[in-house]
Amino acid sequence: MEKIRVYGGQRVDGRVQISGAKNAALPLLAAAILSEDGLTLKNIPPLSDISTMMLLLETLGVECSRSDVDDYSMTVDCETNSLSNFTAPYEIVKKMRASILVLGPLLTRYGHCSVSLPGGCAIGVRPIDLHLKGLEAMGAQIDLKDGYVYAEAKSGLHGAEFEFPVSTVTGTENLLMAAVLANGDTVLRNAAREPEIVDLANCLNKMGARIEGQGTSEIRIVGVSGLHHTEYSVLVDRIEAGTYAIAAAITKGQVDLIGGDFRKLLPTFIEKMEECSLIFEDIPNGLRAKYAGEIRPIDFQTAPFPNFPTDLQAQTMALLCLSSGRSLIDEKIWENRFMHVAELSRMGAKISISGSRATVEGVDHLVGAPVMATDLRASFSLVLAGLAAQGDTVVDRVYHLNRGYCCAEKKLADCGVRVDRIK
Ligand code: EPZ
Question: Considering 121, 321, 406, 415, which one is annotated as catalytic?
Answer without folding.
Answer: 121
